[in-house]
């Protein structure tokens, strides 16, 4: 059973998402919150698998809520998905940097929304290749994370190769094909890299790969 927390200051939005989730046999909405502070408290109380968090809310916004969740060891297994009306904007990028696993635009189709919840619960990032390209364009203009280069040196050559392919938007199966290894081995390389780089998920691997210069866009 996938346990979900809804955090949005608009009751109509929450009720709409809840109506979609409640009809699913393998999903349970364990709590709802109208702002980030309440959402953080309920996250600690219920320990959901997935938190769907609006990015702009009173009291505490989605970015700060995500950051506090990411910094709390007790919530390490929880996956945050940011909800936004605006698509790829500065707030979304900041949320990904804070530790979000991905984001959804609120006008998403119902079937895509339900699929996204399942993807997030598995620990996969909600970042399609098209989104990854836009992340690249954003992050290559940002200052490098001072500790990232040193941390990358802890990776094996194969782990570095796997991270670079994640940054290109490839799935584990696609990474396996590219590296001529099994899907299980590809997943192992990615998971070990996440552990060494202290990345919560694939979204943060994308950020780290470009911030560190491990991968550079062709037009640069």
Automatic annotation (TrEMBL):
Q: Does the keyword Acyltransferase apply?
A: no
- Specify the protein name: DNA-binding response regulator
* Domain Response regulatory intervals: 3-121
Q: Name one GO biological process term.
A: phosphorelay signal transduction system
Q: Which domain of life is it from?
A: Bacteria
Question: Transmembrane ranges?
Answer: none
What GO molecular-function term can you cite, just one? DNA binding
Pfam families attached to this UniProt entry: GerE, Response_reg
* Xref: InterPro entries: CheY-like_superfamily, NreC/VraR/RcsB-like_REC, Sig_transdc_resp-reg_C-effctor, Sig_transdc_resp-reg_receiver, Tscrpt_reg_LuxR_C, WalR-like
Q: Where is the HTH luxR-type domain?
A: 148-213
């Amino acid at each position: 059973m996938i346990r979900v927390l809804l955090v949005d200051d608009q009751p109509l939005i929450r009720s709409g998402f809840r109506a979609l989730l409640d009809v699913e046999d393998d999903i349970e909405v364990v709590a709802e919150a109208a702002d980030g502070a309440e959402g953080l408290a309920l996250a600690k109380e219920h320990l959901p698998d997935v938190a769907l968090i609006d990015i702009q809310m009173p009291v505490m916004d989605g970015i700060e809520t995500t950051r506090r969740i990411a910094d709390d060891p007790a919530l390490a297994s929880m996956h945050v998905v940011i909800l936004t009306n605006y698509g790829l904007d500065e707030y979304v990028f900041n949320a990904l940097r804070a530790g979000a696993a991905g984001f959804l635009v609120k006008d998403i189709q119902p079937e895509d929304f339900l699929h996204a919840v399942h993807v997030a619960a598995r620990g996969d990032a909600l970042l399609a290749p098209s989104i990854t390209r836009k992340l690249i364009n954003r992050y290559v203009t940002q200052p490098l994370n001072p500790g990232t280069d040193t941390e990358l040196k802890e990776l094996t050559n194969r782990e570095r190769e796997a991270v670079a392919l994640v940054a290109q938007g490839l799935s584990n199966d696609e990474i396996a094909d590219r590296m001529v290894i099994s899907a299980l081995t590809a997943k192992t390389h990615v998971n070990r890299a996440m552990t060494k780089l202290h990345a919560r998920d694939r979204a943060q691997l994308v950020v780290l790969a470009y911030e560190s210069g491990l991968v550079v866009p062709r037009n640069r």
